[in-house]
Design a protein that fits this description.
heterotrimer; A mainly alpha; B mainly alpha; C alpha/beta; A: mainly alpha; 10 helices; B: mainly alpha; 6 helices; about 0% strand
């Protein structure tokens, strides 16, 4: 457990030391939202309805950038060997990476949800639960995202391989998140709220579980 | 003549027989007309696509579980993935053509088609990954991870897409079909299923042998420099 | 007791056989120096011993067990071919991180830093260090856990005379040592050629 703490501390010091990192991600996400806004016809009344989809799209793209950075310091400084030769359980290394990414993207989501509500006339009462939904969604996304970031790391064109692998796999998360976000932000009717949450939760458990089992194999040489 | 020599002939014969049956023996469906005959290829393609991906999943697990034999299972997994993508492409294309005739649209986002499309994307991703990584044990191991995650995710995708679809009642694409299906149609379909399965088996074993041969050539080539 | 026992080790990369049926025995308390041409497989051998690479075939026992056993790893200090240092952290932060991972107090690590002429209180990130300074931090990290076995890949690379002398002195005090080096180490000398070890 203490080792987990050391991993988080190390990530905080080497990577998250830059508050600029988070603000750049936020700027990127806002740019995505603005661009998507222009995909709608000017007099469109659809704005609240698409808010959820646009928000999730922005989070997806931002998470790609964040996931690429996941093993960046290990790659750049050549410390992965050191970690692998140490008594550290690879699952802890994985958990540490997931935790760091979830923290960064979670803070991003907390800022992006209210912003989306403002941009697309979402319901203010829905903001708090929407942030919760976004966090649950991000967890599942980062679980497989971290695994595949490590998988894609050695390949040619790794920055393309990661989204090509990840996006289809997280379709269930996309569906569940957007439906729930639309319920909270746009007041969309949702007959089976419970099913949405079950889907979200099941996906999180599945992605974390399989990744913990498979990460050792990815880390090997 | 070796048994393996007769199998390709059986496959060719089987597919020809199925084609003849499909066009000459099976009756014309009342509601859809002749376009319904596409189902005699569409259904086998669906079955084989799923069979292929089950093979990918099992072979992937074996790549990780039987480390010493990784090459053999890696060849099986990648050959099966290739065939899976081929049959899924056929499935989607035929489904699209059929849909255009019957529903008037080249594409509808119904649960089955959508799930199939996502499945197709996952296994294309598997092949793209393999194309972009240097061949060897690492690629085999990582492909196996992708194969396993893909297989595990499929049921969740089905569930999610179906749920998404049910949230908009009435948008479920109608599937015309009679109350009782004539025996001739069933027979044709069965013949077709068997014929295409044999074809799949032939293609798979041939593809695996091709991969084995390529690996052997490579290891022989690697020995060459020492002789100079 | 045998600290390192290797039988018939084969390690291939694709179709290249880097180590062939390699045998090696290192007793407790022995110091071994392995020399060999560039590309002869010294680094590969050391990586197998540290548990970073799996053997293609053959048997490798380190400190009586498998090289990927966490309890055994806790007693091994590794000096890699490239220093395993986080550039954005200071030397002291690096020591504290690695000793935290190995579950030991950082005191010894800071001592070694000082013995090697570095200041633990230095607030500069390791990125601003010269190659020689980084090498010394790397060695301090490896020795900070008071390891029973040290596996070192070219530990003298990038060091000046004073640094080399200081490092050699520290390595002399290590219980069991396996070093890959181009020269200048004590102990039994072995030569790696054609994937096999012979007495030099």
């Amino acid at each position: 457990m203490k080792r987990f703490g050391w991993l988080l501390w190390k990530d905080a010091v080497t990577e998250l030391r830059s508050f600029e990192r988070l603000s750049t991600l936020l700027l990127f996400a806002v740019a995505v939202l603005v661009t998507l806004h222009f995909s709608l016809p000017p007099e469109s009344t659809a704005r609240p309805k698409v808010a959820a989809g646009f928000l999730w799209a922005a989070l997806l793209f931002a998470s790609l950038l964040e996931l690429r950075r996941s093993f960046e310091s290990e790659r750049r400084d050549g410390t992965l060997d050191g970690l692998r030769a140490s008594p550290l359980d690879p699952s802890l290394l994985y958990a540490g990476k997931v935790a760091s990414s979830v923290v960064v993207l979670g803070v991003l989501a907390a800022m992006l949800v209210p912003l989306t509500a403002v941009f697309f006339s979402g319901r203010p009462s829905g903001i708090a639960p929407a942030i919760g939904v976004a966090l649950l969604g991000i967890l599942g996304l980062v679980a497989w995202g971290t695994l595949f970031a490590a998988v894609a790391a050695g390949t040619r064109g790794a920055e393309i391989v990661l989204p090509v692998l990840l996006f289809p796999l997280v379709v269930p998360q996309t569906i569940a998140c957007v439906r729930l976000l639309a319920y909270y932000l746009a007041g969309d009717k949702l007959s089976s709220l419970g099913t949405g949450y079950i889907l979200l939760g099941a996906f999180d458990v599945l992605s974390l579980g399989t990744s913990l089992l498979l990460f050792d194999y990815v880390l090997e040489e | 003549m070796k048994r393996s020599d007769s199998l390709p002939w059986l496959a060719v014969g089987g597919v020809m027989a199925a084609t003849l049956l499909a066009f000459l023996y099976a009756p014309t469906e009342q509601v859809q007309g002749n376009i319904q005959r596409i189902l005699y290829v569409h259904v086998p393609a669906a079955w084989l696509a799923y069979l292929a991906f089950i093979i990918v999943a099992v072979a992937s697990i074996l790549v990780l579980a039987r480390r010493h034999d990784w090459q053999r299972f890696d060849r099986i997994a990648s050959a099966s993935a290739e065939l899976g993508v081929v049959f899924t492409t056929i499935l989607l294309a035929l489904g699209s053509i059929w849909g255009r005739r019957v529903w008037g649209a080249w594409w509808v986002w119904d649960a089955r088609l959508t799930s199939t499309l996502v499945l197709w994307l996952i296994y294309i991703g598997y092949l793209v990954f393999r194309a972009m990584s240097p061949p060897g044990e690492r690629r085999a191991r990582l492909s196996a991870v992708i194969g396993i995650v893909g297989a595990v995710d499929i049921p969740v995708i089905h569930f999610a897409v179906t749920w998404w679809r049910t949230l908009h009642p009435g948008a479920i694409a109608p599937m015309p079909g009679g109350s009782t299906i004539p025996a001739a149609m069933t027979i044709t379909l069965l013949v077709s299923l068997v014929a295409f399965t044999v074809l799949f088996a032939v293609l798979l074993t041939t593809r695996i042998r091709l991969a084995e041969a390529a690996d052997r050539v490579e290891s022989l080539e690697a020995l060459e420099p020492a002789r100079v | 007791m045998t600290a390192v026992s290797v039988r018939s080790l084969d390690r291939r990369f694709g179709s290249t056989r880097v180590l062939r049926e390699l045998d090696l025995d290192v007793q407790d308390g022995e110091h071994i120096a392995i020399s060999g041409a560039n590309g002869s497989g010294k680094t590969t051998l050391l990586r197998v011993l540290s548990g970073l690479l799996r053997p293609t075939s053959g048997d490798v026992k380190v400190l009586g067990g498998a090289a990927d056993d966490p309890d055994i790893r806790a007693r091994i200090g590794v000096v890699g071919h490239t220093p395993a240092i986080y550039a954005r952290m200071t030397a002291s932060e690096n020591i504290r991180f690695w000793t935290g991972i190995y579950g030991v107090p950082p005191g010894r690590g800071h001592e070694v830093l000082q013995t090697l002429g570095l200041d633990p209180a230095d607030k500069r990130p390791a990125a601003s260090y010269s190659q020689g300074m980084r090498q010394r931090v790397s060695i301090a990290i490896a020795l900070s856990t008071s390891p029973t076995l040290v596996i070192a890949d070219e530990p003298f690379a990038g060091l000046d005379d004073a640094g080399s002398t200081a490092v050699a002195a520290l390595l002399r005090d290590v219980p069991t040592l396996v070093v890959a080096t181009h020269g200048g180490a004590d102990g039994r000398h072995l030569h790696l050629r054609d994937g096999r070890l012979t007495a030099a």
